[in-house]
Specification:
The complex is a heterodimer of chains A (about 260) and B (about 260). Chain A contains eight helices and no strands. With about 260 residues, chain A is mainly α. In chain A, α1 crosses α5. The relative contact order of chain B is 0.18. The chains are: A mainly alpha (about 260), B alpha/beta (about 260). The structure holds adenosine-5'-triphosphate and magnesium ion.
Chain lengths: ~260, ~260
């Protein structure tokens, strides 16, 4: 009973925090420097490792499915298979998990230590709204940066698949065939599908990580547990909402 | 170092004749508990506009909790705090009055330089342009003896310097009331003296009410117009320092024994 209550309370508060930061995005233009700084930070923290991850993901899908398709002689479909799985699922999910781990954790740590060391209270006494000052710029930065990161990961993942497809002798699909198939199978709506998902994941990560940061009390130990909790909760919500969105998009004919 | 006392301080120039009055504080039957822990018990206190009141009390008697109620960071279970005739919980309160607090932990923004810490309030509320803000930052840092430290990060400062930056940050808001939570806690006797001088200087120079919370008896007698003794969540005695010296109350006498 208590757990159910807590679940609804937390959900309500998360939604309230999201809505409040959206409300404050009316001050976005004034705070564009801060939004931009957070985007640069997201980029710095994720671009190199995102490239590495997606290169290998693309490669491993090619390695797993390429020889199987080749058995039936339909290996020229590899481009489309890799293209679609990256664009609709793996790009958004892996990108978001990466952001949650590298950027979300830092958000919780920073805001959590501001809560613990009275800095949030200091903001309040200066009549500076912590949601406007801390959450809104991070939310906007994530909303803009995550879809861009996902496109970047999709493209590198395709490339990884193409490299394996063309160099592995038991697959042996040339770059040309791979990309012809990819561009004929991946449609614009599939790309949009992935970007919508990544936008929602960006909202989830920032809201969860800032929420837990703002509620941190105690000392250094509690900051540590808060970070772990924020990252785990982000992961869970990313995967659950991915399933829900996929089934919703499918039933709308957009899957 | 600092400019002569009679020259107008930078806000007085920028305020263009708009005067800021010191405000009084009235606390009526304030009660606050955390679970079973009854921290403030029916606390009553009046602070006169423009005075420096020191609240003296042992560790854990609820001094920080009291200050948090005055500045509106905590809600009372019952009772009320009014500052300048308005309840601090009123929605309009922060539009009408400016209060500043120097936290026990200084609570500087660790990711901002000293200059940006002091400037934050003015910048976020767009009170002045950048040039005027730079003037205010320079002058407030000068008041606390930290001229030229604008670009230093808080992590590079000593505890005493942090406290002084926090005082400068409070001053930059040109507040009507400044609250100090244990301004000299963990500081050496020389630094205690410096902070005490700061508080005295502000009282002479600016129209401001100050409430200083401390367990440091030396500081209390150094800066106070009046001293209130807080014990077990209520004010047990209040008066001018000379009056307290002659007190017959055993708790007050315990405190003063160390003088
Ligand atoms: N947020 C809180 N939640 C629960 N209990 C609290 C909270 N804040 C303070 N307390 C309790 O209230 C009592 C008074 O605390 P407070 O911090 O006001 O003491 P203090 O007089 O400032 O002591 P010190 O001189 O050590 O700073 C303590 O028993 C403390 O445990
Ligand atoms: Mg205290």
């Amino acid at each position: 009973m208590n757990a159910v209550y807590l679940f609804f309370q937390t959900t309500g508060e998360l939604i309230a925090l999201f809505l409040e930061s959206m409300y404050w995005s009316k001050a976005a233009v004034r705070n564009r420097d801060k939004v931009f700084a957070h985007m640069v930070e997201i980029g710095n923290k994720t671009l190199p490792v995102a490239a590495l991850i997606s290169l290998f993901i693309g490669g491993v899908i090619a390695l797993q499915s390429g020889p199987q398709l080749a058995q039936y002689g339909i290996q020229e479909n590899l481009g489309g298979i890799i293209g679609l799985s990256l664009v609709k699922e793996l790009g958004p999910v892996m990108g978001s998990i990466l952001i949650a781990g590298r950027v979300g954790s830092a958000m919780t740590a920073e805001i959590g230590s501001m809560s613990v060391y009275d800095e949030i209270d200091a903001l309040r006494t200066m009549d500076i709204n912590p949601v406007r000052y801390l959450v809104m710029p991070r939310l906007l930065a994530a909303i803009i940066a995550l879809p861009l990161l996902v496109i970047y990961m999709d493209v590198i993942g395709w490339l990884g698949g193409a490299i394996v497809a063309s160099t592995n002798p038991s697959i042996n699909v040339s770059f040309q065939i791979y990309y012809n198939n990819l561009s004929s199978l991946v449609e614009f709506k599939d790309v949009i599908n992935g970007l919508v998902k990544s936008l929602v994941f960006g909202i989830i990560i920032t809201t969860v990580c800032c929420y837990i940061g703002l509620r941190t009390r105690g000392g250094p130990r509690e900051i540590g547990t808060a970070v772990t909790r924020a990252v785990v909760l982000s992961f869970v919500l990313i995967l659950v909402s991915d399933y829900l969105m996929t089934s919703a998009l499918l039933s709308l004919g957009l899957g | 170092m600092t400019q002569p006392v009679n020259e107008p301080f930078v806000w007085e120039k920028y305020r263009q004749g708009r005067s800021v009055e010191a405000v009084g504080v009235v606390i009526r039957s304030l009660n606050k508990s955390f679970g079973d822990n009854l921290v403030l018990r029916d606390l009553n206190l009046e602070v006169t506009p423009g005075e420096t009141l020191v609240i003296l009390g042992k560790s854990g008697t609820g001094k920080s909790v009291l200050l948090r109620h005055i500045i509106g960071l905590m809600k009372p279970d019952s009772g009320a705090v009014t500052v300048g005739e308005i309840d601090v919980e009123d929605q309009e309160f922060r539009k009408k009055h400016t209060l500043a607090i120097v936290f026990q932990s200084a609570a500087l923004f660790n990711s901002l330089s000293v200059g940006d810490n002091v400037a934050l309030y003015l910048r976020e509320h767009r009170i002045y342009g950048e040039e005027e803000i730079r003037d205010v930052v320079r002058e407030t840092l000068t008041v606390v003896g930290l001229e030229g430290k604008e670009d230093v990060m808080p992590s590079e400062l000593s505890g005493g310097m942090k406290k002084r930056v926090a005082i400068a940050r409070a001053l930059a808001m040109s507040p009507e009331l400044i609250l100090y939570d244990e301004p000299t806690g963990e500081l050496d006797p020389m630094m205690t003296h410096t902070i005490g001088d700061e508080i005295l200087k502000l009282r002479k120079r600016f129209v401001v009410t100050q409430i200083v919370v401390t367990h440091d008896v030396y500081l209390a007698f150094y800066v106070a117009d009046r001293i209130a003794v807080l014990d077990e969540g209520s004010i047990i005695e209040i008066g001018a320092p000379e009056k307290l010296r002659r007190s017959t109350n055993s708790i007050t006498r315990d405190f003063l024994r160390s003088l």
